Amino acid sequence: MLYHEYVGYAERVQRYTKESPMNVENVSAMNYTNEDINTLDSFMVMRNTLLGCETFLKESVANYNPSDFSYANTLKEKFITQLESIKFTQPYWDKILTSFYTDRHSEKSNALTAYDAIMRVPTTYVDDDIDGEDNIEIIEAISTEEYWKRQLFQFDRSAQSIENIWTKNKAFFYTFMSKSKYDNHCKIVVTDLIEIHTKITEEPNYKEFYKTHNVNDSIFHTFPTTQYVNTFEYSWPFSFWDRRFEENNDEIVFKILKEINNHYQN
Amino acid sequence: MKKAIIILGMASLVIFGGAYYFMQKSSNLISKSDQAVLNTVEVINNVKKTLPKRLVKLYRKDGYYYKNLDLSKENHIIINNCLQYYVNDNSFEDANRCEELIVDAIIKNIGEVNLIKALIGDVISYENDISLKSNFPRNLFSNASYNASLKSQLILTFINRYRDPVKLQTEFDNYKLYFFDIISKNLYTKLFENYLNTFIESYDEIQQQEDKESFFKRIYYEAETKNRQGELWNLTFWKRRELEKNDQIIYSILKEIKAHYKN
């Protein structure tokens, strides 16, 4: 108790006996006009505002905990909104196709060879949390990828719908997809898909085979023969047709692919 | 046992007594200082009558006005990441130039002209006598790992942008009318004139030297061996400006300011 009072007293001695920092006489001697005082004051206000910014930044960093923040996910929503706002324009398709043809994980330029049979139309609406990622480019890549997966999931893949979309938009597709772009990205996969379709439909029991089998790499490798499948670097086109048979849109997709192939051959 | 109780009782009485003594002293002190505050207020009130009213404004305590920076989410991530470096090392050395981002964010939030005003406000000492801080701009470069505040680092980052002579001239032309307007001749004479003249005179002095190289060798030798960096700052200032190739533009700007206030 004695100690407390003594400490309190000592503190008060320090606090109340300190000299006042302002020296009225000095200031008055300077004889500033009202305008000068305003100016001086505005400089001080702005300096204090800058100090306020400094305080904000320091507090912000002191409270910053990367795992608390879902900035990555907020950013993801932002990137997706941006894509929505430019929907169906040329930059939109450039972004979507670049994302589709770039595999983030393997960094191969031709992502299709990295995709396996598992690479398929999502069966659910994709909305994954991005954890522990603060590289903006990677967040954008993840967001774009998620975006086209969502679009594929929501997209009406009935034969009728695909045909409608194609007839309405093929003129745009041909102008937008230049020959060089096509050759660089699509040519291999389109020819492969056509060739594989032709080959497997030649087999008398193909409907039966694809009816009973789900997507699984090791089983696809055996039809029509393991040898034939092994001539391809990737098994994805086989599972692709499995899904088209399943969705009853194989004929229209095959027709469109042949049309595209012919267009770019001439 | 009885003895022990009596001794304890006496000891506690002594303690109570001592505590009461200090309490009395404390309350005396507080009422005295209250009186002192009242006296000060009276003095200020008296002074007020003879002074422009607004001067009283400057008596208020220094402090900061909390400013919430409106950052975009992605800048928030970047800035927080690099402030982590700042907290650890007290410098932005490894921080990927994100101090530029912070300065951009501040400019976006308060405006460039206000940041310039903040810089001037930072140069002025408002304590006692309103004056220019004598150690500006050396204080900005003071040992980065110990003394430099985040604010100084940001000001330095902002100033660094004006080392480019073209940018300096453009921005000076943009803002000069505004600052000529708010800084009266009176204020200029009292606060800035001497500082400005020192630099103009030292430039002239350097120009008169026949052998500039040996002149600067001597100056730098003096500064380093006799610890006179502060004193000789206005001379070495021009050597650095020469190396940055912005010496002529700065000299002409200083001359222009001087000429403006001459009339």
What features would you describe in this structure?
The complex is a heterodimer of chains A (266) and B (263). Chain A has 3 domains: 21-64; 69-155, no CATH class; 157-266, no CATH class. Chain A has 13 helices and no strands. Chain A has helices at residues 2-16, 24-30, 34-62, 71-85, 90-100, 136-154, 159-176, 179-202, 206-212, 217-220, 226-230, 236-247, 250-265. The N and C termini of chain A lie far apart (100 Å). Residues 17-26 of chain A have low confidence and may be disordered. Chain B is mainly α and 263 residues long. Chain B has helices at residues 2-50, 73-89, 98-110, 112-123, 150-160, 165-182, 185-208, 212-225, 233-244, 247-262, and strands spanning 124-125, 131-132. In chain B, helix 3 packs across helix 5. Residues 47-55 of chain B have low confidence and may be disordered. Classes of the chains: A mainly alpha (266), B mainly alpha (263).
In terms of topology, how is this protein built?
The complex is a heterodimer of chains A (266) and B (263).
Chain A: H1 2-16, H2 24-30, H3 34-62, H4 71-85, H5 90-100, H6 136-154, H7 159-176, H8 179-202, H9 206-212, H10 217-220, H11 226-230, H12 236-247, H13 250-265
Chain B: H1 2-50, H2 73-89, H3 98-110, H4 112-123, E1 124-125, E2 131-132, H5 150-160, H6 165-182, H7 185-208, H8 212-225, H9 233-244, H10 247-262
Antiparallel strand pairs in B: 1-2
Helix pairs in contact in B: 2-3, 3-4, 3-5, 6-10, 7-9, 7-10
